[in-house]
Automatic annotation (TrEMBL):
It catalyses: UMP + ATP = UDP + ADP. This is Uridylate kinase. Belongs to the UMP kinase family. GO terms for molecular function: ATP binding; UMP kinase activity. It is an enzyme of class 2 (transferase). The gene is pyrH. Its EC number is 2.7.4.22. It comes from Hymenobacter chitinivorans DSM 11115. Pathway: Pyrimidine metabolism; CTP biosynthesis via de novo pathway; UDP from UMP (UMPK route): step 1/1. It holds the Pfam family AA_kinase.
Length: 261
């Protein structure tokens, strides 16, 4: 497999399927199947899922609510989606752990980096809920930050378009897709890949991002097997050197009994 460890980012909106709001059961199971197949390759899989299908902090002001309160509502929305995905994966006999950036003791584990690494090493699919646990951020930022913390080889941003285009392909029929692009080119051309905080985190830590169509069955597996799918954003574009695995196994002697659980 091309990658030892990936972080898959899914938007909350994608979970709506054809609906206007909430979670589409068929779409949810479809994503769970894709993740199961990816994890079965032996690649370690971490997932961050958004909450836009339920609530976004920016909506709060329209409701006359406080923005920070709205952001926490958004974070809780991501926990709801994460719980749904966890259940769907468990239905398919995939071992999972949900780690939350906001402590919700009865529902999921708190986010502790070493625990996340331990779970991944044991082959469990790790879902990071509640973003980074702070308002004024997005789940794209959470995806970048967690990916850097767990030393993932790549952020795979699953969307409903098959990559990054010169213009919006839904509006401009002449738009063409980049197979590879550099971080600098994305910024120069003002292309919309992730919000700037999330994007800068990846750029500064030399963490490649691949934007791909998650709704096309098999795409995730093809990516993991090293096929060119979607658009890859990296420091050097097509000249990027192949990344060596960076992470080493945690030394059991350094972990506490709870971390080994
Ligand atoms: N959010 C936040 N901090 C985080 C992650 C998320 O405050 O670290 C809130 C924010 O209000 C955001 C909402 O949670 O709008 C849902 O996440 P996001 O909009 O990223 O979901 P997506 O667009 O991927 O569905």
């Amino acid at each position: 497999m091309k990658y030892n460890r990936i972080l898959l980012k899914l938007s909350g909106e994608a979970l709506m399927g054809q609906q206007q709001y909430g979670i589409d059961a068929v779409r949810l199971m479809q994503y769970a199947e894709e993740i199961k197949t990816a994890a079965a390759t032996g690649t370690q899989v971490a997932v961050v899922i958004g909450g836009g299908n339920i609530f976004r902090g920016v909506q709060a002001e329209a409701f006359g609510l406080d923005r920070v309160q709205g952001d926490y509502m958004g974070m809780l929305a991501t926990v709801i989606n994460s719980m749904a995905l966890q259940s769907a994966l468990e239905k398919l006999d995939v071992n999972t752990r949900l780690l939350s950036g906001v402590t919700i003791q009865r529902v999921c584990e708190p986010y502790i980096r070493r625990r996340a690494l331990r779970h991944l090493e044991k082959g469990r699919v790790v879902i990071f809920g509640a973003g980074i646990g702070s308002p004024y951020f997005t789940t794209d930022s959470a995806a970048s930050l967690r990916a850097i913390e767990i030393e993932a080889d790549v952020v795979l941003k699953g969307t409903r378009v098959d990559g990054i285009y010169t213009a919006d392909p839904e509006k401009d029929p002449t738009a063409t897709r980049y197979p590879e692009i550099t971080f600098d080119e994305v910024m120069e051309k003002n292309l919309n890949v992730m919000d700037m905080t999330a994007f800068t985190l990846c750029k500064e830590n030399n963490l490649p991002i691949i934007v791909f169509d998650m709704n096309k069955p098999g795409n995730l597996q093809r990516l993991i097997e090293g096929e060119t799918v979607g658009t890859r954003v990296s420091m050097n574009g097509s000249k990027a050197p192949k990344l060596e695995p960076k992470h080493s196994a945690l030394q059991p002697s350094l972990t506490t009994p709870t971390e080994q659980a």
